[in-house]
Write a structure and sequence with these properties.
This protein is of the alpha/beta class. Helices cover about 30% and strands about 30% of the residues. It binds adenosine-5'-triphosphate.
Length: about 290
């Protein structure tokens, strides 16, 4: 049976620098998540805490009720992050063997097939690969490890458009064959929007969004028309930002639209995509109308 992974009140300081402040959320079994946040928001730090590579200043990470620090619990969590974990001469095949030794049941056959799609060979030395090739080797490793929770930090870093597409296809295929929780932390939000079911957004050291994508986008609108009419229609709503072009205003709203309010003929309402919603939510209102 697969358990929930609970991150509770995690705070992390590096020296006097507060990176994460009372971060709590729960990851459900067999779901694909996007972990989003601006550069330096603390995503990698959080992933390193979850996988027990660094310790939180306060708070806990638990699989159901067990602290994630035993072999048994850590054997259910796999993180790919930085490259510096591997010794210099290691070949891709040996990375697979290490994962097999630690987690068991490594899917060598599928990994071999994936390597071919990325034009790589198991005998290639990891440290000699290009940035994109390293990423390809790491995601191949991650998608074939037998763990219930797979964390992919920057899974498309350096991959060209063709290989990113290969990765997205393989991710879906792998998930369908063996549903488990996969957390993607990436800045290419428009590309993962269709893959993820749920978003965790870290902003200003805290969890700003912890919501299903569908529900999130259901509240994300852009409302445009003559300034006065847009202001009237959006009065009292949560307006994240506005842009003006002459007398035409576009308001980016993150709210349920009021049912009884009449939409004037000259006012148009459209939906915002995840990437733009991310920008409006994390912009701090600093560059309105710039
Ligand atoms: N070992 C460390 N010592 C001191 N500060 C650190 C350390 N690791 C990370 N930081 C700082 O913590 C903050 C969060 O870094 P982190 O790498 O977690 O962000 P991120 O959200 O993954 O960023 P990006 O999207 O740019 O990769 C940054 O300001 C970084 O400088």
């Amino acid at each position: 049976m697969m358990e929930q992974l609970k991150i509770s009140q995690v705070t992390k300081k590096f020296g006097r620098h507060l990176i994460l402040d009372d971060v709590s959320f729960t990851l459900e079994p067999a779901k694909i998540y996007g972990l989003l946040g601006r550069n330096g928001a603390g995503k990698s730090t959080l992933l390193n805490i979850i996988s027990n590579r660094i310790f939180p200043t306060a708070g806990s990470v638990k699989l159901d009720d067990q602290e994630v620090n035993t072999d048994q619990t850590l054997g259910k969590i796999f993180l790919i992050g930085e490259d510096n974990l591997y010794y210099k001469q290691v070949k891709i095949n040996q990375m697979f063997d290490l994962a097999d030794a630690a987690y068991g049941n490594f899917d060598y056959k599928n990994a071999e097939r994936m390597l071919k799609r990325f034009s790589l060979e198991g005998t290639h030395k990891f440290t000699k690969l290009s940035t994109g090739q390293k990423t390809a080797a790491k995601v191949t490793l991650a998608l074939n490890v037998s763990a219930d929770y797979i964390f992919l930090d920057e899974p498309v870093l350096g991959l060209d458009a063709n290989y990113r597409e290969v990765f997205y296809q393989e991710l879906i295929k792998s998930y369908q064959a063996r549903p488990r929780t996969i957390v993607l932390s990436t800045h290419l939000i428009d590309e993962i929007q269709r893959l993820i079911e749920h978003v965790i957004l870290i902003n200003n050291q805290q969890v700003l969004v912890d919501t299903d994508v569908e529900e999130l986008l259901r509240k994300a609108y852009e409302i445009s028309g003559p300034v006065k009419l847009v202001d009237q229609y959006t009065e009292g709503l949560n307006v994240l930002s506005t842009e003006d072009l002459g007398n035409i205003r576009t308001a980016h709203v993150f709210d349920k639209l009021p049912e009884g309010r009449v939409i004037p003929d000259q006012v148009q309402i459209g939906h915002t995509d995840l990437q733009h919603l991310f920008i409006y939510l994390t912009n701090e209102g600093g560059d309105k109308n710039d």
